[in-house]
Amino acid sequence: MIGFEYSRAGSIAEAVSQMAASPGAKFVAGGTNLVDLMKMDVERPVKLIDVNRLPLNKVEETADGGLRIGALVRNTDLAYHPVVERRYPMLSSAILAGASQQLRNMASTGGNLLQRTRCAYFYDTATPCNKREPGSGCSAIGGLNRMNAILGTSDACIAVHPSDMCVALAVIEAKVRVIGPRGEREIPFHDFHRLPGDTPQRDNNLGTDELITSIELPPRGFAANYTYIKIRDRLSYAFALVSVAVGLELKGGNIKEARFALGGVAHKPWRKAEAEAALRGKAANETAFAQAADIVLRDAKGFGGNTFKIDLARRTVVRALSQAARGTPQSQSSKKIA
Amino acid sequence: MTASEADDSPHYSSHPTRRTVVAGGVAVPVAMSLPSGTAAQPALRDGAPSAVSVNLTVNGTRHALSLDPRSTLLDVLREHLDLTGSKKGCDQGQCGACTVLIEGRRVVSCLTLAVTQDGANVTTIEGLAKAGKLHPLQQAFIDHDAFQCGYCTPGQICSAAGLIAEGKAKTPEQIRELMSGNICRCGAYTNIAAAIQQAMGQS
Fold first, then answer.
1. CA nearest to B43 within chain A
2. Whose CA is closest to B128, among B140, B111, B143?
3. Taking CB atoms and an 8 Å limit, are A103 and B116 in contact across chains?
4. CATH number reported for the structural domain that contains residue A41 in this entry
5. Which residues pair with A261 in a beta bridge?
6. Which residues in chain A have Cβ-Cβ distances shorter than 8 Å to B161?
7. Predicted TM-score (pTM) of this structure
8. What is the CATH number of the domain that holds A310?
9. Which of B113, B163, B176 sits opposite A35 (nearest CB)?
10. What's the pLDDT tens digit per position in A24-36?
């Protein structure tokens, strides 16, 4: 780990001004990913600005019936929050599918969005990686790519975003509130993370001088018909090969509203409007689910080691839609597939 | 035996501990393995980072420390405070051997920068036994033979103490899921889960 200066921000304004005065600095909250990357010499910040003492650790109901989650609310506190458990159980389930309880106790809501990829080559400074060192090449293409992306890839990068929580936030259509030297702004969730394109070094559209202050959830939480299912190499505490979050609204046996997102397959949580539109108005059955799965995976492309993910994703989408339609969401402690 | 009892032992200084033997054994090969021209210290942009004052209360004892911001809580416990019960396994947050409790919540100390914990109350494996009596989890691990090599045990026990305090695990399945951050390469999981269930019944 390189040497770095350290400061504590006493207020949001102070955090923003300290960052503006220190190009190359980074904010630190839980540190569960940043400290790891600093140990590996992948992240080399000149300074860490500790935001842990900022007043951003509340979960509050908003006037429109939604929920405002402070950026410093820890992952466990969010997952077990009674309002989240009751009205946004998909979010609770997705959080509990990720990491371990120790890490969830440390990790912040804002930091969860800013996790960097777990692509092995990104971590290995001895190998080329366009995300770590733009222009150096992608070692995963033609290399070991079992964990890598099958959708939205580019010639420069096939990394995936590792978060579980974000897959649920994509379905819920959360908004990300941020603040920087130019003031506050709100970023719709689907605009927050980026596809790699030819700038894979940029994971998201947050400015380097901006701080996430909260995540806002709209009122609709799909509490009746939802699931989060995560397929991985071991039953717990592993990153997703494929995960799927689903939120449905049913009327009779028919689908009134359908949303689903895939994790572990792209540089961001993956949704496809056409696939969701194909479900609306249909009877909730396997034929409709398989059709939606085919649409979302139509443009999927494997790279050898991860080609199996295309079929796996298709089957996981069908399974997840079935679970949500039946109202039997996947349990994150019993590993039996519902 | 607690660390403080060991320190008070009249034979302590004349008997090398496992730790001094291990440390002495690796010091030479590590030094020799450094390629010429490789600095032992990481390159700093503007010299050494400024030390930061940090107050930590560990197992009820307050410590005023001046730390390099790079210091992890794990390294502070082991290298500054000589509390070597918390183990360094992977040093990447993947194994749980370094688990300690901060304000009663379990965390991995290897990914916790000590400077971010100014004013915090930390409990390590050394702080669980009270007045010479083992913590119910320590006793349960012995009763159930819940270890082989023992390296992961301090982390397992601290993690289990956090799990019991959380009150979220009701079934054996849930215990296993919520203990998944602690890896045991000897594979003592069956007995670990049984030990935690026993201790949970007593709390």
1. A2
2. B140
3. no
4. 3.30.43.10
5. A245
6. none
7. 0.92
8. 3.30.390.50
9. B113
10. 999 999 999 999 9
